[in-house]
């Protein structure tokens, strides 16, 4: 009888221990699942303005995103919708329907930031609107390589709503490149976020070779661009 009682107590203890381990494993799995694919928007800004040449109504959006997971992620599958206060797309005649979205870099290592520039054109002045951003991070098929940036400088042409960051990107990797992406952020005197810049171009660069770049902002009101006092610019390439 005592032997049976002891065996019963031992079995119950083992079941409880197994249950605890299962709970711990499940909690750990949930924690890992939460960390995987976590992309955070750390800064964003949107503007409405009239194009100085075409006179179209432009919806402009800029953002900085950050990979807060512990994995390298491809965030190129990013979509943006401009919606009114009821959640509906402002105008079905946005050209294109999904506004152009530019991202650089679009493969982010843990802790790394990416820069989004986007624009949409509508045929009338919009009411109050909001921007809905959807990011679908996936495992990258290629490796991101940072390129050295030098001789960079800021320039704004008067009354065209666009700011330029010009400079030189050098292939400081051990492999040749086929193209480069340039991205960055614009800041005011007090480090307030104003917008982003972007450029993509073919660049057949062997190791050690350089190429000039001219990254431009999305269309931003001139009065906002006049506040820009600082910027950050990065260049990258992707290799299989």
From TrEMBL:
Keywords: Signal
Keyword hit for Signal: yes
PROSITE patterns the UniProt entry points to: PROKAR_LIPOPROTEIN
Record's signal peptide: 1-18
Superkingdom: Bacteria
NCBIfam families, per the entry: FxLYD_dom
Name of the protein in its database record: FxLYD domain-containing protein
Originating organism: Priestia aryabhattai
């Amino acid at each position: 009888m005592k032997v049976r009682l002891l065996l019963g107590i031992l079995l119950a203890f083992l079941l409880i221990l197994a249950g605890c381990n299962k709970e711990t494993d499940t909690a750990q799995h949930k924690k890992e699942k939460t960390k995987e694919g976590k992309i955070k928007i750390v800064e964003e800004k949107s503007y409405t303005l009239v194009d100085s040449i075409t006179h179209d109504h432009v919806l402009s959006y800029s953002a900085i995103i950050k990979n807060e997971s512990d994995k390298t992620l491809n965030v190129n599958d990013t979509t943006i919708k401009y919606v009114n206060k009821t959640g509906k797309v402002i105008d079905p005649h946005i050209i294109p329907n999904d506004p152009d979205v530019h991202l650089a870099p679009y493969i982010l290592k843990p802790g790394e930031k990416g820069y989004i520039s986007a624009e949409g054109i509508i045929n009338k002045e919009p009411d109050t609107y909001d921007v809905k951003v959807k990011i679908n991070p996936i495992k990258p098929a290629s490796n991101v390589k940072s390129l050295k940036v030098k001789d960079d400088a800021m320039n704004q042409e008067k009354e065209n709503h666009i700011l330029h960051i010009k400079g030189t990107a050098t292939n400081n990797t051990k492999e040749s490149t086929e193209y480069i992406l340039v991205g960055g952020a614009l800041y005011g005197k007090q480090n307030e976020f104003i917008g982003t810049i972007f450029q993509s171009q073919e660049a057949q660069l062997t190791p050690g070779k350089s190429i000039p770049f001219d990254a431009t902002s999305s269309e931003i009101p001139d009065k906002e661009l006049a506040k820009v006092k600082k910027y950050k610019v990065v260049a990258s390439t992707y290799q299989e």
